[in-house]
Input
Amino acid sequence: MEKKPYLVDWAITHQCNLKCRHCRGMRVGEMDSTRAKEIINEIAELKPGWVIIEGGEALLRKDLFDILKLARQKGLDVHLISNGTLLNVEIRTILKQLGVKLMISIDGATKETYESIRRGAKFEKVVRAAKEAASDGLLESINFTLMKDNYLEIPGIMALAASIGLKRVTFIGLKSCESYENELLSAKEYAEAIRLACDGAVKTGVEFYFDEPFFWPVVKEQKLQVGLPTANTGIVSQETNACIFGEYLFIEPNGEVKPCSFAPMVLGNVKEKSLVTIWQDNLASPLMERIRSYTSRTGNCKSCKYLTDCKGCRSRTFVLTGDWFAADPVCPIYNKSEVNTK
Output
């Protein structure tokens, strides 16, 4: 049986009402309604574990609810990522009726940090939106992108989640953006971020996912106490802890299809080919097969005892090194001497 993608992540529009510091940049343009609905049918044919709909800000797309309705009619498990600023009673009611799972991005536990990262947003407004969505039983998770300016607020964001009655936070590693290397956590900071998340979960009872393939190796090395959420939050695959580069698909607003949401690589374009054909070509590609295989790793990764559990983040590694097969430069295991420096 042909392998199915773990998920399909679709940035359905480039439109956005914010100018976030960590935005990876949007491909301008979006599929018209007819092609968008055809893409939903093609996603359904691939039978992924779930589908992420995001942007830009997905709620700015006028036919969003029609697309979400079709996706649900096709039996797809749909997770919608929003910055939360446009939510109101009417939108929440529709999303709940459709059975869509909502994730709101809140990248700071304080007004100062949040508003410095999500430029154009108001902290009080997004917290209120999150509380209302949680009260409605609609909010699945807070998404928190890790940066140098905010990772020490991990305990605060977990306390915030607990205060609004939310049980989950998803921590997402920063991928390529403007001033990337200045914003990216070092190996030592990543190790501390993982420790803070584990401690925060114990103190607050809030579950979390940590979207980094070296998460479990660090947990084992540091002998941290942690448990995974009992439900899928739409970002991390529960079937594997390792990097899933090339094992899922990301669709840009302009139709480009990538093997990872942050990959500087294009597999094809849904303006020219069906998504099913692009997925099949991905599976058949010798280069993609080599990147997916842990046996292709070089440097410290090659001899790491956690290699099969991790495989290293391929998109970050390529951006930082220009090599698809190198060791992840910010892995706390790879940089153990830096991590252990007090």
